[in-house]
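I'd like us to work through together how a protein chain folds, taking it slowly. We need material for that, and I hope you will provide a protein of your own picking. Go ahead whenever you are ready, and we will take it from there:
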Amino acid sequence: MTVRATVAGALLSTRRRLLLVLLIAAAVRVLFLVHGDAVVALHGDENYYVRQGASIAQGSGHPGSFRPPLYSLLIGASFFLFGEDPTSVRWIQIVLSLAAVGLLYAVCRERFGPRAAALSALACALSPALAHFTHFLWSETLFVTLFLLFLWLIRRFDHGERFGYLAGAAVALALAALTKEIAVFFAVLMLPWFVLRGERRWRSGTRHALIFLACFLLPLIPWTVRNSAVHGTFVGLSNCRWFPIATGNLRAEDALRGSTEHEEFIAHWRRMTDEVEKEAFSRRAALRSSMLLSKRGACEGRDGVALLAGTGPGLASAAPNRSPVRKSRRACAGPMRRTTYGLMTAGRIPSRPSLNASSKSPQAATTPRPKIMP
């Protein structure tokens, strides 16, 4: 009787802690919504998701495949049930965020105990970033909740090896991938974990890995088949893998050089109508800008700019005052980067000239860098 009373008291204490943390989290998020005048206007990707959700709510389906569909479906369902008002979506995201706090508490409690779980959940509840994200029509809140659900289910499976937990974890991760494609990489990492997580259990681990993979792929196949049918070629979960890399790199390059290549890239990208061609164009721009930034980081000052143009001194002589070890690293990095970049851009940047007096002329330092734009 004493043991039962002790267990019941501990359970009641745990529930009270969780309830208190959830009330604090709800209060913070509601206050942000009531007094957050800045979130009324749509920002950036919010316009895309609102257009997709409105199209779904009106019965026109999900146009294109630029991003995975799940968050757009959530907005479409909210618009269909409550009208095309972004505030309804924000209230739904507050509920999802509270679920994320509860899931974090559950995951930490099983691993570290109730006190650590309460502190972790409280930090999540009071986080200004997480509270503010519930009011932006972005996919992060939904993704975090689904990913925490995956962690909780896979943790439960690790304790009891029940098929329901295994399948549920795979489906939760698949839904997270249908929200943000990055979750696919976690599925790849899970496969060796199943095989190696226990001694002398590689056979059962392999079986669990195959079951997990099948349950993970099952929700993804219909969307992939639909995308491939729409575009006439194989398309995975989205056509937005290279676009963020290209825009991020070009912004950095524009800031370094005072150029306008990012604006030129966006203008050209918007004129294109085919999403597959947009993705290929973004990939080329991302790879070129990545190599240019990498080369720029390997050089110093005006000599580095001249090297990008193919008319400046070599990497080894760009910093004569450096240590011999650093000189050696820079000398080895130059040919490798130049070869890789040449393979990707089919010789857009000329080969580095030999080190002679003419390569160190004043005109070399002012030679402009070749344009990234095709």
User: Anything to note?
Assistant: The chain has two domains: 2-231, 243-365. Residues 2-35 form the longest helix (34 residues). The chain is about 70% helix and 0% strand.
